[in-house]
Amino acid sequence: MRSYFLLFLLFSCFSGHSQASLNNYKYVLVPEGFSFFKQKNQYGLNALTKSSLEETGFTAYFDNPDLPAELANNKCNALNAEVVEKKSMFTTRLTLLLKDCRGNVVFKSKEGISREKEFGPAYTLALKDAFTSLTQAKYVYQPAPAINDQPMAPANAANSAPAEKTTATVALPAAGTLYAQPIANGYQLIDTTPKTILRMFKSSMADYFIADNGSSNGIVFKREDSWVFEYYKDGKLMAEKLLIKF
Fold this sequence. Notes:
By secondary structure, the protein is an alpha+beta fold. The strands form two sheets. It has a seven-stranded mixed β-barrel. Strands 1, 2, 3, 4, 5 and 6 form a six-stranded mixed beta sheet that branches. It folds into two domains: 4-17 and 167-245, no CATH class; 21-66 and 74-136, Double Stranded RNA Binding Domain. The longest helix has 18 residues, at 119-136. The chain is built from four helices and 14 strands. Helix 2 (45-56) packs parallel to helix 4 (119-136).
């Protein structure tokens, strides 16, 4: 196995992959109808959401079978637009949410308010008011940096004492075949249930992934012809063999 320096480098970059900012997304998917309406695009609100996102700088699509292959095959490349209504007697109140494919809120607007009595104009004005928050965020698309964009180790690091080789104290056999599904910057591994067992994020090194199984962070790498997930549990280095079908 590589030195502790490599392990530290991969772990330090993990948060950058799992906590992408608004600017790291190019695409937004807009539903054809919102949950608080019975009809699709009622009062033109979904079309207004799409056009407003495009005016902000996003590339927006309605979430339907006509999606381009890039998004149809991996919706984690896009944010999902959601508009939430807060019930009020004399005002219309709407909030815009942009969520990633795991349901995490990446952006939440202020509460847009309108006091118009007619429903159509009231919803339109409230949504436009909510969108002012996104305009003020000054969105500019910036792809998430690759790991090799991180600062390099000092040049004299090669002269330092070599890192001690570490051997896993607990080796675990493979639990069964896992199937790799592409997600943003990597893969998610699912079993036959299907249940997500592990998420792997690409690194700058071939066959090395930053990994998260929901309870532990670690690395997945290829050792000879086998895939191995290494992580620490209760102070012990664990090595779990994986059977992955890509």
